[in-house]
Amino acid sequence: MTARREDEQEMAGRAKAGPLDLAVTSLTLTRYRSYDRARLTLEGAAPLVVLTGPNGAGKTNVLEALSYLAPGRGLRRAALGEVSRFGADGPWAVAADLMLGDEPVKVGTGIEAGAAPGANDDDADEDDSGPAGRRLVRIDGETVGSTNALGDRWSVSWLTPQMDRLFIEAPSGRRRFLDRLVIGLYPDHSRQVAAYERVMRERNRLLADRGAHADPAWVGALEARMAEHGAAVAAARLEFAGQLAGFLAEPKGAEAAAFPEARLAIDGWLEGLMADGMAPVEAEAAYRDKLAEARRVDAATGRAGTGPHKTDLLVVHAPKDMPAGLCSTGEQKALLIALTLADARLVAAHRGRAPLLLLDEVAAHLDADRRAALFAVLSELRGQCWLTGTDRAVFEAAETSALFFNVEGGQVAPAK
Ligand SMILES: Nc1ncnc2c1ncn2[C@@H]1O[C@H](COP(=O)(O)OP(=O)(O)OP(=O)(O)O)[C@@H](O)[C@H]1O
């Protein structure tokens, strides 16, 4: 058992004036990864917040903590117990004061008291529970029933170095990326995806366990629910992609000069039926029939062979008319930034509130002109953007619009 350090790190920075749709004004981390207890206070609402410090100092940990202000497993998709400070005695917690326009909101999340920190919950299927305990959320002092409530009034979006291989790795990563963006626009999508996956597992397990002896009425009922949730998932993805296309096609000013226009398409059987004009209710029926036909094969493989859990997101570098996976590393990064910025503008337009953006190690990979363009675009978004890097010089073009913090030695302190 490690003695708990009670020395709170009080940090203050001075911000540029100007109300944002969404800004973090304070953040407190308790027994969270490399932090025993840390508190950042941001005076006012800066459009950009920059964390600099050496490798391994804890910059990404701060962004990850902020990503828990959204439903889901955070930007590292960590298991619930994994973020508990190693060796600490007690549950982890993240608390933030937000300003939604001029409305203050207090948000707290963490693992329930009494849960075993560090327990292995890698197999957790749900976002908010696992063997290590359950993720609890309090908004303005009230405990809410589900982490999904975190998506109701604001959204959080991120870009991390782990996503650099998004276009060349397995479709599952792109599907998750797509669904995360869809949730940012339509919060109910997370409930639909979770319900779809839950009922699919139940149906697959039943078929694998009972095979030809499974009660057809029971399997049929599960498939009907699978088709219902699957059709909702597919419809939301298509609707989102249609909306985003408009924002991808019209980057303006600095954004247009620095980041390529992207096109995207959703490659999925159910989405394809709907894209070809089939009404969602008919597509749902077609999926139900398809599942019934596939029972024998699915019983043998233990998986459903068709459905929204197989969907891929195709991204094309529009000026080169080239699939993103064939583009250079730098071009792929620029496409990811273009997608993230277009999505932020879409969310701002449709939800009336720009997202909180978390950009981990993004600026260092861009040339000076693209960096300046990125900071200019971010400063104009109505949400707040948190950026990280090892080198302050990289953020020179953001000096007038950013609050800077040093992350070093387990502390986060305002930089001069
Ligand atoms: N559960 C944990 N308990 C204690 N420390 C942890 C835990 N998880 C991660 N760490 C520590 O956090 C540190 C990594 O922090 P983080 O990834 O935030 O660094 P960073 O500043 O972003 O580094 P880089 O510039 O290399 O990306 C490592 O030293 C790691 O050992």
Tell me what you see in this structure.
With about 425 residues, this protein is an alpha/beta fold. It has two domains: about 10-155 and about 355-415, 3-Layer(aba) Sandwich (Rossmann fold), CATH 3.40.50.300; about 170-315, Glutathione S-transferase Yfyf (Class Pi), Chain A, domain 2. It is built from ten helices and 17 strands. It has helices at about 60-65, 170-185, 190-210, 215-250, 255-260, 270-275, 280-295, 295-300, 330-350, 370-380; strands at about 10-15, 25-30, 35-45, 50, 95-100, 105-110, 130, 135-140, 140-145, 155-160, 260-265, 310-315, 320-325, 355-360, 385-390, 400-410, 410-415. The strands form three sheets. Strands 1, 2, 3, 5, 6, 7, 8 and 9 form an eight-stranded mixed β-sheet that branches. The chain has a six-stranded mixed β-sheet with strand order 10-14-15-4-16-17, sandwiched between helices. Strands 11-12-13 form a three-stranded antiparallel β-sheet. A hairpin with a 2-residue loop joins strand 5 and strand 6 (about 105-110). Helix 3 (about 190-210) packs antiparallel against helix 4 (about 215-250) and helix 4 (about 215-250) crosses helix 9. Residues about 1-15 and about 115-125 have low confidence and may be disordered. Bound molecules: adenosine-5'-triphosphate. Adenosine-5'-triphosphate binds near residues 56, 60 and 86.
Low-confidence parts: 1-17, 116-126
> Count of helical segments?
10
Radius of gyration: 22 Å
Bound molecules: adenosine-5'-triphosphate
Comma- or semicolon-separated keywords:
single chain, 416 residues, alpha/beta, Rossmann fold, Glutathione S-transferase Yfyf (Class Pi), Chain A, domain 2, 2 domains, 8-stranded mixed β-sheet, 6-stranded mixed β-sheet, globular, disordered N terminus, binds adenosine-5'-triphosphate, SOS response
